[in-house]
Amino acid sequence: PSSILWLRRDLRRGDLPALGAAHDAADGSADAADTTDGQGEVAVVFVLDPTLWRGAGDARRAWLAESIKAADAAYDGRLCVREGDPVTVLPQLAAELGAGSVHVSRETTPAGRRRDGKVAAALARTGVQWVETGSPYAVGPGSVVNGEGTPYKVFTPFSRAWRDYGWPSPATEPAGLRLAQVRSDQSALTTLKQAREAPDLPSLPEAGEEAALRRWADFRDRALADYGTDRDRADLDGVSRLSPYLKIGAVHPRTLLADLADGRRGPGDGAERFATELAWREFYADVLWHHPRSAWQDLRTPLTGMDYDDAGGAVEAWRQGRTGYPVVDAAMRQLLHEGWMHNRMRMVTASFLTKDLHVWWPLGARHFLRHLIDGDIASNNHGWQWVAGTGTDASPYFRVFNPVTQGLRFDPHGDYVRRYVPELAHLEGKAAHEPWKRPDGYLHGYPQRVVDHAEERREALRRYEAARG
Ligand code: FAD
């Protein structure tokens, strides 16, 4: 083969510009008469990096392993999986195959950028070219800047400029693509198989780009028109649940945006709103691009001197979904059971940890990243900073979500609570949100409230005001 396509956050075959670039490089360097020794073929590889693998929870591992399996099928069983540090694996593979270039979609997270810099340098030492084409975003992070050439700090002007910037049409598969058959590491295949078959896994969605596109088509035709109004309702099936696919790159946002823009959609502001939500994903990636330290540190400094509590028993109750606040518990259990949580509930549970339990947001962000199958450092950690009031364009520090009124508004019939908290299944309708009001509310082993929300709200405001001087 004369080129390598290294898949990372782009486990798909459709709408993948780096595949086109890899094919062009392979095709251009092939001797037209010689098709016997793999010349002109593209070797597609995934590198299982033990450093990243170790940090992932079982659900995340299983989701990745299922997604790799699906990508292998999409590449006609020719996805090569190798195990090890990419800095050594890629140069070795290039030498083994006689490849002249390694092609990727540009990685944009701080750790990914550091790693890619090292891999590119190692390849350069052996004369192998490193080529970045596209990224996991419709607009590459760092591209959208204001009139002065500086990055946007606030979402709304960013999203306007992001739309004006525009994005290319989806890429089509190069004609005459030939895929190389390259041996995988047996140890890597075994590791992936074990991850897929791990005991007590949450129920995961079907993996792969075909499943992602089916999910999109179903959502588009069934729920997109009402998305603007239904997206906040935790009890309804009103959101796309595409985040795990976007995370792994089984589908690219450009594919979805092109479909939204083609004018066939129904009435309502759903399509517009959906594009705006995709823009949040792009905004947070852009913020991380410009401020790599914002991954784990407060982006805004006024709250740097905040007085936080250490994690104690109440935090453990939060992790397990046993705080005594039904909607918080339903959401935290949804996270453990499905590896996913509804957006409104991510805000409610993050507010509960940071403002009712007074814990610094990175502790919660870490718990989410361990369990979410869509766990993404930019969207997750900046989502946490938004709730904590420490991010750029954050929720105001004095906004403290009330877990009861949030439940009553966004799960008005109590269905979401009953789905995940069986101890409350005997409470009808919205009574599920306030079991303490019913004498039999606690009969089924449901815990008492770990804190008093009204009291902790006052305490949070006191601490925030003290920190702001
Ligand atoms: P939909 O409502 O169908 O939206 C479509 C897509 O738009 C999503 O898949 C996602 O890619 C993007 N999107 C929507 N809302 C947001 C948002 N607020 N920020 C960034 N992108 C958004 N999203 C992740 O993908 N990974 C995370 O790790 C993550 N952690 C979060 C943590 C917290 C504390 C908060 C408040 C939000 C977090 N989000 C995260 C954003 C959002 O909750 C999820 O993207 C959304 O719930 C995914 O469900 P969906 O695909 O059905 O979303």
From TrEMBL:
GO biological process: nucleobase-containing compound metabolic process; response to light stimulus; response to stress
Signal sequence extent: none
Residue span, Photolyase/cryptochrome alpha/beta domain: 1-138
GO molecular function: deoxyribodipyrimidine photo-lyase activity; DNA binding; FAD binding
A Pfam family the protein falls into: DNA_photolyase
Presence of keyword Ubl conjugation: no
Cofactor note: Binds 1 FAD per subunit.
Keywords: Chromophore, FAD, Flavoprotein, Lyase
Required cofactor names: FAD
Keyword Ribosomal protein: no
UniProt-recorded name of the protein: Deoxyribodipyrimidine photo-lyase
Organism, as annotated: Pedococcus bigeumensis
